[in-house]
Amino acid sequence: MATGQLVRRMGRAAGWAARTGYELVTLLPGAEATDSRPSRRGELPTADAPRDAVRARTAALLDESAEQREDAATWRLYDAVMRSLVPDEVRLLRLLAQGETWPTVDVVERGFLRTNAVLLRHASTVGSAAGVTLTDAVPVYLGRLVAFGLAELGPEERSLATQYEVLLADESVVAATRTARRPRFVRGAVGISPFGARLWRACDPADG
After folding, report:
1. In the chain, at which end, N or C, are there fewer CB atoms within 10 A of the end residue's CB?
2. Other CB atoms within 10 Å distance of the CB of residue 39
3. Bridge partners, residue 105, by sequence
4. pLDDT, the chain, mean
5. Spatial separation of the C-alpha atoms in residues 17 and 7, rounded to whole Å
């Protein structure tokens, strides 16, 4: 090939490479092909980025835990727990922190071979007493408070007989009962846990 033709050919190739993003070196005679995809600026993070971020966060927490004092660790825990609660749950916690226990009822479907299906768990009058906004979410709230270690569930308390009767007439309990052929009521009680009591004493805004 004549020198002039080679120069013109390389010129056209350079212009095409500039438009498509290909590296000019891949078009030179005798060059080996590399990545055929156009190079892009501002590419998205790789799949490893979230994993690396979590590992970095873990390492930072481990470094912090090696140096923090007991009081700092306690307040970090309290802060993390309180940030995880919704306003209705804080109202429940405040009422439970007064030390009283409240009735709970589970509605179960009695099956064969002594098997039971739970239709409603942790229904309680404590929600109405605390003035929560979503009374039908009280079973969920109590389940979360128990999961966080802020509240404890216990057996039926005879002293709450009147409140149990009120609870059995609650709309959520009645609705769950209607869906069962052979309903059974499991009575219990809920109260503040030792951890919940410590947290509330520390975080109670009224103790300013």
Report:
1. C
2. 9
3. 123, 187
4. 83
5. 15
- Written as six digits, the tokens of 185 are 């009521």
Phi, psi of 66 (to 5 degrees): -75, -15
% of the chain exceeding 70 in pLDDT: 75
Residues 158, 123: contact at Cβ < 8 Å? no
What are the residues whose beta carbons fall under 8 Å from the beta carbon of 192, sequence distance 6 or more?
93, 96, 97, 99, 150, 151, 152, 200
For residues 67 and 62, what is the distance between their CA atoms, to the nearest angstrom?
A: 9
Residue 34: is its pLDDT beyond 60? Answer: no
Read off the tokens for 92. Answer: 């429940």
For residue 117, list its beta bridge partners. 109
First to last CA, the chain: 91
Of residues 122, 143, 133, 127, the one with CA closest to residue 188:
122
Q: Strand 116-124 relative to strand 102-110: parallel, antiparallel, unpaired?
A: antiparallel
Tens digit of pLDDT for each residue in 105-152? 999 987 766 667 889 999 999 999 999 999 999 999 999 999 999 999
Give the amino acid at 181: R
> Distance between CA atoms of 157 and 104, rounded to whole angstroms?
10
CA–CA dist 202, 182 (Å, integer): 46
Tell me how far apart the alpha carbons of residues 147 and 127 are, in angstroms, rounded to a whole number.
17
The tokens describing 58, both together, are 């873990």
> Per-residue pLDDT tens for 63-83?
888 888 999 999 999 999 999
